[in-house]
UniProtKB/TrEMBL annotation:
Highest taxon, organism lineage: Bacteria
Gene Ontology terms describing biological process: methylation
Gene3D superfamilies xrefs: Vaccinia Virus protein VP39 (3.40.50.150)
Protein name per the record: Class I SAM-dependent methyltransferase
GO MF term set: methyltransferase activity
Ranges of residues in domain Methyltransferase type: 56-141
Entry annotated with the keyword Methyltransferase: yes
SUPFAM superfamilies, per database record: S-adenosyl-L-methionine-dependent methyltransferases
Length: 209
């Protein structure tokens, strides 16, 4: 479990925060991150039936996904957004990171729909109002697969518990599906654009209705 920087409250997502949870705490380490990136890339390419070209990372922090992603697909375009002024000021130019809150994606459309949309360790730190405002925008910006790594009440996850929302998994499933996503498993969700191409057993049965 990790973080999102919503730009509100007393919690500061500055260098000390990233030092604590990522450089000293590890938060799973580089090998675990590399496996997540490989999973997301391969899942997107399986459903797209071609190499991945574009990635949008919402709640990207310092852009940790960028290096392992470009190691796998050097020609891919990476674009990140985060609410941490520190992260964007320090790494924005080098890693193509930009400042935005999650709720901004109710209207913000910074690019055409991407092959892979990443929103990792973000949604469980948002209040329901901000989550509901931004989530339909994620579906609109995803033309392939979304990696929506989210932790629920049932998971007993370890990490930064400050601001963590104790919600059941069903809370997220219903909202993801209402936005148009279909579950693929392992935090991967198929975009509305590709659902007509998926076979019955490639996606999970809808939780809604």
């Amino acid at each position: 479990m990790a973080r999102y920087r919503p730009g509100m409250g007393d919690k500061r997502y500055d260098r000390a925060y990233f030092d604590r949870w990522y450089r000293k705490g590890g938060m799973g380490g580089r090998q675990r991150l590399a496996r997540k990136v490989a999973l997301a890339v391969s899942t997107a390419e399986y459903h797209l039936e071609r190499p991945l070209r574009t990635v949008l990372d919402i709640g990207c922090g310092e852009g940790a996904w960028r290096a392992p992603l470009l190691k796998l697909r050097p020609g891919a375009g990476y674009l990140g957004f985060d609410g941490s002024a520190y992260a964007v000021a320090r790494y924005g130019t080098r890693r193509n990171l930009h400042l935005a809150r999650f709720a901004d994606f109710a209207h913000l459309r910074p690019c055409a729909p991407v092959d892979l949309l990443v929103c990792s360790d973000v949604l469980h730190y948002l209040d329901a109002r901000e989550l509901d405002r931004g989530l339909p925008g994620l579906a609109a910006l995803c033309g392939g697969v979304a990696f929506l790594e989210t932790f629920a009440r049932e998971d007993q996850a370890e990490g930064d518990e400050d601001g963590f929302m104790q919600r059941p998994a069903a809370f997220y499933r219903k909202r993801f599906e209402a936005s148009g996503f279909r579950a693929l498993g392992s935090h991967c969700w198929l975009s509305p654009a590709l659902q007509d191409e998926a076979t019955a057993l490639e996606v999970a049965p809808p939780a809604l209705g």
